[in-house]
Specification:
The protein is mostly helical and about 170 residues long. It contains five helices and three strands, in the order H-H-H-E-H-E-E-H. The longest helix has 27 residues. It comes from Methylobacterium organophilum.
Length: about 170
């Protein structure tokens, strides 16, 4: 927007967050909040992050519904495991998933989806091989986890960020 205030919403959000985290507000706290609100976006401007282009908004909405459904279902499954309502042994483990996606925004969204879904955790990504190491609370079938991540998340993310048809 301008040289002094390149990202006004980021500045306002940072200053407000600073004030909320350091309540009650004091003169020094308000001054520091303004300083943080102005300094951090200036650094962000120097980094010049590129903008993301969403190419398939319908696919994005379907992915959002899928992720919300999976989160609710995973919460129930994890609660059953923790409360001991599910019979059988609990087997945690690691699953290696070969990803075709290389788009940084898509990989970031996938990391957020997997980490925010109870029972799964993005552990490591090897950019040379494109392999993702994921920890799962319920390691019943590794091939099923690979298919789930690729079909339910990776393919729509590729359509959203890379323009590939889902």
């Amino acid at each position: 927007m301008s040289r002094i205030l390149p990202y006004p919403f980021l500045s306002a959000g940072l200053a407000l967050t600073w004030l909320l985290l350091n309540a009650p507000p004091t003169r020094g706290g308000v001054l520091l909040a303004l300083l943080v609100g102005l300094a951090v976006p200036a650094v962000m401007r120097a980094l010049r992050p590129r903008t993301a282009r969403l190419r398939a908004p319908g696919t994005a909405v379907r992915l959002l519904v899928t992720v919300l459904y999976d989160m609710v279902r995973s919460n129930i499954d994890v609660a059953r495991i923790i409360l001991g309502l599910r019979r059988g042994e609990r087997r945690t483990g690691f699953v290696t998933i070969p990803l075709d996606m290389r788009e940084p925004f898509g990989l970031t969204a996938l990391a957020i989806i997997l980490t925010a879904t109870p029972g799964t955790l993005w552990v490591q990504y090897d950019s040379d091989t494109g392999c993702l190491l994921m920890h799962v609370l319920d390691d019943t079938d590794k091939d099923q986890w690979v298919r789930r991540v690729k079909d339910r998340y990776e393919r729509p993310l590729m359509a959203i960020f890379a323009g590939v048809l889902a």
